[in-house]
Amino acid sequence: MSSTLESKEHQALRAAVAALGQKYGREYLARTAREGGHPDELWADAARLGYLGVSIPEEYGGGGGGITELSLVLEELGAAGCPLLMMVVSPAICGTVIARFGTDAQKRTWLPGLADGTRTMAFGITEPDAGSNSHRITTTARRDGDEWVLTGRKVFISGVDIADATLIVGRTEDAKTGSLKPCLFIVPRDAPGFGRSVIDMELQAAEKQFELTLDEVRLPADALVGDEDAGLLQLFAGLNPERIMTAAFAIGMGRYALAKAVDYARTRQVWKQPIGAHQAIAHPLAAAHIDLELARLMMRKAAQLYDAGDDMGAGEAANMAKYAAGEACVKAVDQSVHTLGGNGLTREYGLASLITASRVARIAPVSREMILNFVSHQSLGLPKSY
Question: Is pTM, for the whole model, over 0.85?
Answer without folding.
Answer: yes
